[in-house]
């Protein structure tokens, strides 16, 4: 049973997602929405109400958790039948002809790991399992041939569709190469760029450790550039470029890892000006962005030298290792050679899976729901740690905490370990000889119960409130 019902969320108070949830409850209560009536897809309802897909997904997830709605992979979201009091409320109900996946995570672990974002399962696990079955039964690319550019075209088209809305400039599927996750994508881009005996790449003074690891594999020197609240300082880039063979800049302007900072378009344009003056390529790692882009990518601002790398590791699952690299038009042949000469390409069944998954409307909804769940956990962090110096955003699955006087990053992480919480100090994002600020990154683990996560954050708050100097340690 379909519906064209549209709520008026202005009639309800509170945040928009709560107002939407209340509107749906009211419509069910007064009979406007019937049992098993289908609601509009996340993106369609968001468009009609002029709100973000994440807001709609958050409301749907809230009501699904309560048993008011139910989700069926491949069919949509429906009004659930009323539960008897004796029935336990299930988070999601799926119609599927494949076996149920056994839980792969512990909801209340003894030690709470907040070192790397852990995605919630909002239906993508069963969706992936279904698609795996479809690929096994009828692999488009076959199972007896080497990967090749022609058979991977549908997968590249699916990536192009997945990236729809990302400001990348003129984009053809031929500009895309599939990689084994974002880290492999960074390595492929560097392999395509670096030449000569002593190439140099630039990174922010605090940056994703994978940039340094990829450079080390290619025997390139890494130079850390000072940064301010908007990212890498252009004048510092220009100064280094005058005395070194700088060939690439590696940066994450949408969501800087680990600080969560955002580089506005004005700063990006300054970086592009310096890069053009010194013939430097720019590699943009966009793996951590979960919401809409807030500024044009470097590939759009500098089509001749802007590279774009992303993956599905923070939006759907890190297990599949599906990433993608978009090269600037002049460098597409070099990028293809790096992949084809290095590993021939992804395994053909994995490329077929990527094609089906990234072109699936349910995967898009799952990504929006993952973001909505992460946002709830982020809010929990901010509720307890907001009195301290934190950088956060609802669409970023970690927060950056600058420690108060009395705490050093290493000591704070050790104290957190004692209370069974694992986090990452700033030193892990700095060069070996750098002096990092006293700060920590706290990643969101949405694979544990919300109250268990909140208890861990409260233990960190207790440590912050009682630094060693005050408690005599």
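^ Assign residues to that structure.
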């Amino acid at each position: 049973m379909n519906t064209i019902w549209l709520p008026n969320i202005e009639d309800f108070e509170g945040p928009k997602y709560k107002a939407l949830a209340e509107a749906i409850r009211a419509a069910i209560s007064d009979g406007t929405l019937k049992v098993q009536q289908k609601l509009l897809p996340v993106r369609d309802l968001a468009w009609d109400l002029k709100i973000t897909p994440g807001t709609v997904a958050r409301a749907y997830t809230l009501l699904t958790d309560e048993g008011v709605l139910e989700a069926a992979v491949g069919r949509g979201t429906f009004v659930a039948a009323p539960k008897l009091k004796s029935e336990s409320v299930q988070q999601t109900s799926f119609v599927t002809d494949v076996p149920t996946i056994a839980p792969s995570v512990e909801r209340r672990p003894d030690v709470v790991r907040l070192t790397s974002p852990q995605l919630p399962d909002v239906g993508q696990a069963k969706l992936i399992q279904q698609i795996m079955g479809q690929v096994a039964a009828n692999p488009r690319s076959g199972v007896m041939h080497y990967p090749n550019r022609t058979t991977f075209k549908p997968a590249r088209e699916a990536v192009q569709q997945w990236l729809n809305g990302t400001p990348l400039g003129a984009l053809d599927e031929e500009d895309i190469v599939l990689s084994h996750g974002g880290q492999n994508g960074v390595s492929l881009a560097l392999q395509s760029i670096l030449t000569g005996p002593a190439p140099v790449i630039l990174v922010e003074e605090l940056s994703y450790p994978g940039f340094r690891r990829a450079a080390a594999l290619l025997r390139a020197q890494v130079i850390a550039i000072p940064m301010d609240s908007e990212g890498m300082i252009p004048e510092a880039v220009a100064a280094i470029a005058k005395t070194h063979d700088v060939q690439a800049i590696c940066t994450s302007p949408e969501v800087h890892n680990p600080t969560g900072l955002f580089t506005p378009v004005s700063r990006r344009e300054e970086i592009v000006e310096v890069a053009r003056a010194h013939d430097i390529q720019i590699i943009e790692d966009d793996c951590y962005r979960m919401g809409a882009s807030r500024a044009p990518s470097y590939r759009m601002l500098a089509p001749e030298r802007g590279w774009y790398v992303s993956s599905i590791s923070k939006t759907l699952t890190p297990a599949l290792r599906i990433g993608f690299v978009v090269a600037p038009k002049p460098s597409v042949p070099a990028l293809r050679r790096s992949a084809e000469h290095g590993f021939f390409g992804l395994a053909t069944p994995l490329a077929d899976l990527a094609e089906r998954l990234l072109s699936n409307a349910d995967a898009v909804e799952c990504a929006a729901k993952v973001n909505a769940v992460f946002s709830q956990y982020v809010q929990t962090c901010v509720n307890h740690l907001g009195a301290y110096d934190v950088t956060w955003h609802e669409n970023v699955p970690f927060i950056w905490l600058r420690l108060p006087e009395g705490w050093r990053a290493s000591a704070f992480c050790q104290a957190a370990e004692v209370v069974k919480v694992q986090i990452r100090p700033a030193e892990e994002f700095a060069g070996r000889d750098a002096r990092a600020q006293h700060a920590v990154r706290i990643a969101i683990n949405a694979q544990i119960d919300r109250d268990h996560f909140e208890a861990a954050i409260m233990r960190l708050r207790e440590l912050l409130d009682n630094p060693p100097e005050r408690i005599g340690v």
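The longest helix spans residues 361-385.
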